[in-house]
Amino acid sequence: MSIKKEIPNTLTLGNLLSGCFGIYFVMQGHVLWASYCIVISLIFDFLDGFLARLLHAYSELGKELDSLADMVSFGVLPTFMLFHLVEASCGTQCSVGLFGFYKPFIVFSLAIFSAYRLAKFNVDTRQSDQFIGVPTPANGIVIAALPLILEFQPEYSEYILNFKGLLIYSVIMSYLLVCELPLMAFKFKTWDWKSNQIKFIFLVFCVAGLIFLKFVALPLLVASYILLSGVLYILNTQKK
For labeling, which of 25, 222, 230, 234 is most exposed (least CB within 10 Å)? Predict the structure, then answer.
């Protein structure tokens, strides 16, 4: 196999390695460092796809490897981070009421549905220029943002350390990962304004959100991305 085809695969393995480090940090109680690992994995995940398109270095091996790496970095790692945050926020409420101390384990649904979503992506031919269901990196972005908000914007802590909200999020996102909702894919085949104007406008919106709201913007931007995709889907359906 040519070295050119192995360049994207090497970056994919960097994504996987960063996810493994993130799991280690969660086990040590350093959830903030786990957030940094997700950010690094996101960078690797973007670069491997970008270089694969640039170098025309597509391969079935690379496709499978990418899903395996994403399962660790954006499936398992975020699940353990959310589990840690739920345990830290629920206190005695984790031992009483419905399900008792089993409540935090509800978040493991994210790992299960992430695996299903990634396997589905590999065999679903409809997802060449769009996503069907929320991509796993979007879930990774939301959960990576939570420790960053706690560390750098503590005034929002009460909204983050709400175990019921975290459990509800895990259930809703688990569904969104595998639902039949088409979502925009930021894969630029060309860079002209006419065919990419919605994507460009949304990217500008993202930059503005990050400048003014910092890390709090990340969950809001993911929610906006899902809502925008839903609106576009409805509008396109009505045109047909």
Answer: 234
Burial code (b: 16+ CB inside 10 Å, e: under 16) for 123-155 equals eeeebeeebbbbbbbbbbbbbbbbbbbbeeeee
Please give the pLDDT value at position 56. 81
Structure tokens at 77: 């790692």
Task: Report pTM.
Answer: 0.92
Say whether pLDDT at 97 is over 90. Answer: no
Instruction: Give the tokens for residue 197.
Output: 């104007």
Residue 79 backbone phi and psi in degrees, to 5: -60, -45
d(CA 34, CA 99) in angstroms, rounded, equals 28
Q: Output the 3-class SS for 105-164.
A: HHHHHHHHHHHHHHHHHHHCHHHCCEEECCCHHHHHHHHHHHHHHHHHCHHHHHHHCCHH
Question: Element (H or E) spanning 182, and its range?
Answer: strand 182-184
Burial of 116 (0-12, 13-18, 19+ CB in 10 A): middle
